[in-house]
Structure formats: C-alpha cells, structure tokens
Specification:
single chain, 41 helices, Transglycosylase_SLT_dom_1, Transglycosylase SLT domain-containing protein
Amino acid sequence: MVLLAQATSNACHWAIRHFSSASRFRLEPVLSLITLSALLASAQLSATEQPLLTSSSKSDQAAPANLIEQQNLPVSSTAPMLGIFATDNVKFITQRAAYLEAQKLLPNTSSRQFIELKASLKGYPLEPYIDYRILSRKLSKLPYREVDEFLDANPNSYLGNRLLRDWLLTLERKQHWHDYQSYYRADLGDTDLACYHLKARLLTGDETAYTEVTNLWNVGRSQPKACDSLFKLWQNAGQQTAQLTWSRATQAIEAKNRSLTRYLAKYAPAEIKSKLDLLVEVDRYPEHMDQVRRFAEQSPEMQFIILHGIQRLARKDAGKALKLWERYDAQHLFADQKRIETQELLIAHLSRQGLTDKVTELAQSMSNYSNIDMISGLARDALANVEWELADKWIRRLPAEELNSSRWRYWSTRIAEIQGHSLPPYPDIASSYKALAKERSFYGFLAADRLGLPFELEDEPSKVTLNDQHFVANSASILRAKELFELGQINFARQEWRFASRQFSPQQLQAAGALAANWGWYRGGIQAMIDAQSWDDLTVRFPLAFESVVKAEAKNQAMDANLLFAIARQESAFSPDAKSPVGALGLMQLMPATAKQTAKKAGITYRKHDLLSPETNVALGSRYLNEMLGRFNGNPAFAAAAYNAGPHRVTQWLSQGRDQLPLDVWIETIPFKETRGYVQNVMVFSVIYAYRNGSDIESLKDTWYVPNPAQKQSQSTSLPAGQGSTVTNGAAAY
C-alpha cells in the first residue's frame, strides 16, 4: 500500500509539473556553476568582464535584516568603502558553534540534540546547508515535494543549483526521462546534464534533438563519458557522416588533441579513412612530407593535410619545411589567408632556428602580415641582437592598435633615442616619454625614469552609493560566504562568493571587493576589483596582507619587504590555500621539492601540509627568493625570473653576452611569455608596495635605470650587469 501510494503521488506530481506553469517556469534564470579549479588554475589574475544581471533576486530579498550600521546619509550618496562593514551580527557568532555541532550530528537527524540545534539555526545564513545535507541523502527515494520546496526556497543560489544537479543525476539513474526534462535548465552549464537531457528527449520521441547532439559531438575535444550513450544513439540513427568526422578530426588536430584524432581515424567511415590516416601520419612523422607524390590529390582535405604537415615539420627543421612549402605552394591553389598564416609560421621558426637569411628572403616576398606574435618575435630577436634599425622596421609592421600599445610606443621611443632621431607624432623624444610616464605601468615607470620624473601611482579609493553597499552587505549569498569564510570552509565560501558576484554591477563589485578586504579575504577583494575593472583602488588591489609575517621574514633575511609582497601578490594574490595545477602550494606557490630543499638548508622542520600555513610558506619562500637574489648579484628582475622559471634557465638567458644587455632589452627578450609578464608585474608591484608601505619610491630608481648601449662600457664597472629597466605586456592594467 505504501509503494502504491508513493507511485500514485509521483504520477500526480509528474502530471502537475507538465501541465502547469505555476512552479518550475517562474524561476529566474541563474548563471553557470563555477568550480573551485576555475578560481585556482592560474596565480596570475586576468581582467574579465562579468555579466551584469538584476540585483533583486528572491534569494537576496530573503536575507536577514540589515547587518551594517545605518548612517545619516541618503542611500544615493557615496562614501569610501573600507571600514563601513565592521558591524558583525552577534547572533551569527553564537550560531556558528551550533552549526558545526549540527553538522557532526547529521547521521542522526532524529536525535533530540540535533532537533534542538536545528531549531536554533533559524535565520542563520548557513541553515540551508544543513537542509541540503539532509535532503541530498534521500534523493534516491524521490522526495519530489521536498526537492521543490528547497529549490523554491533557494533560487538563484549556488546551493540551489547544486541540489538541482544532484536531483537531475538521480532522475537520470532512475530513468525518469519526462521528469528530467521538466527540471533541466540549460543555464546550469553542465555538459553531463546536457547530454542526459538530449538523451531524455530522444528516448521520449523528440528527434529534433539530433541536431543539438551533432553540435555537441562536433568539437575538437573529448566529451565526458556521460555523453557516450547519447552519442551511441545518435550514431545508430545514422547521424555521423564522413563530412562530420573529418570536421571533428581537423578541429581536434588543430587543438593538439591527437589521441581524439587517432580514435576518429580508426573508426572513420570508409570514404574518409585513408585521408585521416594520412593526417595522423604526418602529424606524428612530418618528415614524410618529402614524399611529395603522396600529396598530389587536389582537394580541400589534402590541402589541410599539407598545411598541417608543413607546420609540424617547421618546428623540427624550418629550412627543409620552407623548401617543401615552395614546391607544394606551386602545385596547390591555397587560400590567401592560409598561405599567409603558413608563411608567417615559417618565418617565426626560421628565426628561432637562426636562419636569418631565409627570414629576410621570405619576408620580402610577402605583401602583408597578420600574425602579431610573429612580428613581435622578430622585433624581439632584433632587440636581443642590438639591431636597432631592424627592430624598428618590424615594430612598424605591427597593426596600428598594437603599435599604439605602451610596449611598442616605449620601444619606438627608445630606439629613436638611441639613434638620435625625432619621433612623430611627438615633437621630440622627451614628449613621447612624458606621455608614457603618465601611465601606471611597467613602461610608464621606465619612461618616467628616463626623464627623472616621479612614478605615476593614481591611487583613488572606490566610492559607490550606500545603497549598493547595503545591498551587497546583506546579499544572502555574501552572508553565506562570510560565514563559511569565518568557519574556514574556504572552498564553499569561494563558490558562494563567485556565484553572487557574477550578478553584481561594477559598483556593487567594488563594494564587494572592499567587504572581502575588510574580512581579510584578500584574494576575493582583488578579484572583485579586477571584475569591476576598478584599477585605481590600490588599497584593495594591493593589500598589506599578512603584514607582520612578511615584514618579519624580510627582516630576518635582510631583504626588501616590498619585493616579498610583490612576489606573493603575483603568485597567489595572497591566497594561503592556493594550489597550482603543477603542485605549487600556498602564498608564495612553493613546489614541495623546492620547499624541502630550502627547509633542509635552513634547518627548518616541516610537513608538506605546512606549506598552506602563511608563516611556514613565507619563511621558506623568502629564503628561496633570497637565495635567488644572492645567486644573481642582487638583481630583482633576474631573481624574479629565476623564481618563476628556475635559476638554470636564467643562467642560460644570461649567457653568450646577454648579461651585458640593458635590462629593459633583457626582460623584453626573455623567451617565455609567461616569465616576461611575471617579471614585469613583480617590478611594478614592488613600486606599488613601496608606496603602500610609505617607503621612498625614488630609492628604487637604481633598479629601473637603463643605460644606453653606448654608455655600457663606461658604466660596466659601477653598475651590476644588466641593471636597468623592464617591460609589461602592453595590455596589462596595474
């Protein structure tokens, strides 16, 4: 009887959901669930514009009463951000202990103690987490009503989306395909769920889903295993054609997903299999491109194979690739853009392999260029060889937008200064440097130093309306993030924070950044200001995080605390629990092997987990950085490069006379793009932290000064090798 009643209830519930719009379809759309790995994939933060959504979600309206102190100002007026969020809710402080105890008792939710603790959490921001844990344990029993109640009580929230995902996976396992379609939302942004949704549509007779399956399949990457059964249905229905197989295989090979290309070739339709086998062959053995007769067929597919083979061969032997390219170019009618792209790639590899005569010959045969990386690389090669006229020639080949960047404006001016030329549109070189010196950037600081001008800092604290400040401080998601942060549950705090901030306006993001900084959650504050593109609030963007620890270790190591701050800011944005994909840990992103070696030298006992402690991490990181400074004569740019790329590489980059290059040239010609940007950032951050710490910024000028090449000989005895300037990536905002 119980089972019959349950089945009847479920059937009625299904009917209500399919023939009424009173429940599911009135929910506001929400953004995709953002995983923790997305926040921790790179230590270097990027300025990404966030979508702007309405800020009046049901979840936020349900927040507790205002927690910040009311001020005698109209809500439309503006005020400085830091210090206004100091009020804490005393009740929340007492509820934290009850919440932690309730979590421990979750296996026995019927106990009197748990029931009392649960009742005491009424109004506490993390109460839904207890409800979620209880409900998630019984989803297999299909508690439709309780799921609906939770989703309706927690719309537009991280936890609501999380339960919905769990629920959809349960419905998929139970093969309740109609219910799955009713609950599914595309804005969850989950490929597994999308595949199950398309499968549900096909199994319930909706053949229009085939087109969407095609689009999901035809990509240059492997899709998750959850999609396998869907793709099998699609293939059995005869949807996989030779044309689609070729399309996906070529996307995969261009994305360097060679295993997928080989898989597709192995099971390809007969009419395309031989060409895919040839594509896989030249990808693995590009030297087979010298068997010209095998590539004589005139077809788009063969042209793709030839172009790919030439590009692969160029990496190994650019000279041979160029000779073969000339033969193939005469035999096949390649599209103009493909010809240009191939020639530009050949030029780049010829240059790297030292075949400069071939570079000049091929470059002169081309009427235009489109590859900015190639042109920039050739300009850097010329700079590294102190060939100023050639460097200037390549710089002038850059597109106008790139040419007007801080990077190339600086180098055009620098070369003109060396050669004694004037520089249009500026009346003289000094005017060009003066314009650059107005920017808070690596090149701006360098230009200021050339003229003896002070560095431009442009420090302007954020000011937004009190209305936005109040809204953010009382957002339900932000309140949950705050409590999770206080409880040390940082992973969940990040999820709540990220979910909420994606719905904020730029002004609200600034308020959120100041709020996070006030908590001591420095990474959250930095990221919020980046998302808001609020570049001038240096207090939040460059916090004096873990100040006592950093300054104490700097003193112990007799090193500049500003450089230590700069390295930590660049490495982790002051996230103590940061973990990189390659295994670096903590504030200063130390590799365990490096930390172990450094600890042994210093006589410090530690465990790997201790690297997540700011005290241990900074103690070891500062010692390693100091070791790099000692190894490279105290030069902060060389030491920063060694910290990022390893001292052996820096030693190599300083060999063959390159240690005599002006420092701006040396940094600009660092072979690794990541390390170039890293060193530039650290140099700029050091200046900003000197300002934040009240240090004499002018005292840093010695580390920025760049002698002209003509001055090198006379100054080589008084200046450390390479002492001088720096570079940034042009588009970076500091």
